[in-house]
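Inverse folding, one chain.
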């Protein structure tokens, strides 16, 4: 299982992540990013990573739980 690290200070609300992976990322009416999943299920992992890759300000990172430990 993996999870998403989101740096809200960097996010500029471009919405490319949402366009790429609307199952995972959603911009609310104030252009604030909302993560639709706490933990990324295996079937959404590739999409979550694709959405993180297109972010122009690198505000998103998908990390596997084992990496993040310690
Ligand atoms: S693509 Fe990056 S800057 Fe744009 S809304 Fe998503 S996290 Fe924010």
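Residues assigned per position:
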């Amino acid at each position: 299982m993996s999870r998403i690290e989101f740096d809200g200070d960097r996010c500029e609300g471009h919405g490319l992540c949402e366009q790429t992976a609307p199952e995972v990322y959603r911009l609310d009416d104030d252009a604030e990013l909302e993560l639709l999943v706490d933990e990324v299920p295996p079937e959404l992992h590739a999409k979550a990573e694709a959405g993180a890759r297109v972010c122009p300000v690198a505000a998103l990172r998908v990390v596997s739980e084992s990496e993040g430990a310690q």
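The first helix runs from residue 16 to 20. Residues 11-17, 25, 27, 33, 55, 57, 59-60 surround iron/sulfur cluster (CB under 6 Å).
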